[in-house]
Design goal:
7% of the residues lie in helices and 37% in strands. With 166 residues, it is mainly β. The chain has 2 domains: 126 residues, no CATH class; 33 residues, no CATH class.
């Protein structure tokens, strides 16, 4: 990045240098580092595939800084239904944040806000597709790849006496 740009990326963080922000605002595009996501509690199911891509319009409106735009993050996930690996893209197309600023502020770090938006958009139980059939509860076979030989009819046991009539 050039020396005169108002967005600094320090250790993968997204920081706005308010003193260099152009009159009328600026559009900033780039990507943070993947380390800012810090997904220790989800490490087994979700891994970032790169940093958070951003395209943000940043403008000063008196004593307010308005930030709006798009965020995008790719993940490598393990499906919680079938245990297969798949790619997931989390997008936030309407990111909007407002910050109160004054002459004491030289820099504004946007990293925590964009991180929070992406993490909150992650599914609690990643699923490779809505149609995923998961694993057989008896033998563990992936039902998306075909059936299994297990008898999976666990219907109402009160009617099981009628099964001998087949």
């Amino acid at each position: 990045m050039g020396e005169k740009e108002a967005v600094l990326e320090t250790q993968g963080r997204l920081i706005v240098d308010l003193s260099r922000l152009k009159e009328g605002g600026e559009l900033f595009e780039g990507e943070t580092s993947a380390e800012i996501l810090d997904l220790e509690d989800k490490e087994e199911l979700v891994q970032p595939a790169g940093g958070i891509a951003y395209k943000l319009q940043v403008e000063s409106l008196g004593n307010e800084l308005l930030v709006r735009g798009e965020l995008r993050q790719n993940f490598i996930c393990v499906c919680s239904f079938c245990n297969e690996t798949f790619n997931l893209e989390v997008k936030e197309g309407r990111f909007v944040e407002s910050y109160e600023i004054n002459d004491e502020f030289a820099f504004l770090d946007l990293t925590n806000e964009i991180r929070e938006v992406i993490i909150l958009d992650l599914p609690a139980h990643p699923r490779c597709s809505e149609a995923c059939l998961g694993l057989c509860p008896e033998c563990g076979a992936n039902l998306n790849k075909g059936g299994c030989e297990c008898k999976t009819d666990h219907g109402d046991d009160r009617w099981s006496a009628l099964n001998i009539l087949d």
